[in-house]
Amino acid sequence: MINALFGRRRMLAATALFFAGAITLPVAAVAQDRAPYQGLKQTVAVDTFQATESVGGAVTADGMTALLIQALVRDGRFVVIEGAGASEASAIVRGVVTKYEAAAGGSSLSIGGGLGSLLGGRAGTRSQRAVMEISLRLVNTSTGQVVSTSSAQGSASSRTSDAGLVNTWSGATVGGEMFRATPIGQAGEDAIMRAVDQIAAGMRNVPWSAVVVDASETGVYLNAGADRNVQAGLTLSVWRPGRTLTDPRTGEVLDVEMARIGQVRVESVRDRLSIASVVEGEIPLRGDVLKAD
Question: Which residue from 54, 105, 212, 285 has the least number of CB within 10 angstroms?
Fold first, then answer.
């Protein structure tokens, strides 16, 4: 009897693995392999996607936000800032899910008896095709202006296990997957991979910048280091923020007056910090902005 019990457990485990394999979806297409990015990395933040109930609601919004953050980090051209520091990013990406078809087409197959009887229910598979379209806005956080807009559509087809497949012997459900492993999640990831290059193109309209953390006659400390590909010898112009010009009707920031006060050269680099010396002009103040020459 013990042998039969263990044999049954092994069969159930193998069945779970079989269906887990069946629901594994093809990985979304990624950009061609390229050498590690050597340029200065821009800082970006990602706002939570907008997604109405008709396009999946909060589940889609949270899932797409996470996928976009992961894609930007993997890309290597950006430093993604989250939490309280997000307001210090050079730009923020705002996305909207504009189209959502979780089952644009497909077919199904059910298996009765045998394996289905052992699992206490109907075992089955179905083929699904999902489509998602997103719209993105890239906003310069210094000015509040939209510097670029883009859109992308993704699709995914997969063979998935029947959601109703239940193992009544152990009480466990086989086939539960998180957002990314669903057809619509894969379609969303496909759309995001297509949008990353568009985001990079839009960031060309946002000047690279860092901020002075502290400064004295012995050195100028910047809030950018190896994490943003800063290297010794880099020269940066120093700019001091002046008046902030806002629209009196909407409160929108239209521009910030900036005065160039000098230049510094990076002498040493740490993980998230660099130390520079003054090449020209006065010693910077905490909060002064540094821009690549």
Answer: 54
50-91 pLDDT, tens per residue?
Answer: 998 888 888 888 989 999 999 999 999 999 998 877 878 999
Alpha-carbon span 110 to 126, nearest angstrom: 8
| 12 and 93, same domain (yes or no) | yes
Q: Distance from first CA to last CA of the chain, Å, rounded?
A: 79
- pLDDT over 60 at 285, yes or no: yes
Half-sphere exposure of 31 (CA within 13 A, CB side): 18
Query: Is residue 6 located within the same domain as residue 131?
Result: yes
Taken in order 156, 159, 163, 166, is the CA torsion positive or negative? negative
The arrangement of strands across the sheet holding 42-46 comes to 78-80, 42-46, 91-111, 123-140, 146-161
CA pseudo-torsion sign 18, 102, 122, 168 = positive
Structure tokens at 107: 């077919």
One domain for residues 184 and 48: yes
Containing structural domain, residue 140: 2-203
Q: Are the C-beta atoms of residues 122 and 112 closer than 8 Å to each other?
A: yes
State the Cα–Cα distance between residues 5 and 172, nearest whole angstrom: 17
- Give 130's contacts (C-beta < 8 A, 6+ positions apart): 101, 102, 103, 104, 155, 156, 157, 182, 183, 184, 186, 187
- Asked if 241 and 199 sit in the same domain, the reply is no
For the question of whether the overall pTM of this predicted structure is more than 0.85, the answer is no
Q: Residue 32: which residues within 8 A CB-CB, separation 6 or more? A: none
Query: Contact at 8 Å (CB) between 92 and 120?
Result: no
Point out the domain boundary residue: 203, 228, 251.
Answer: 203
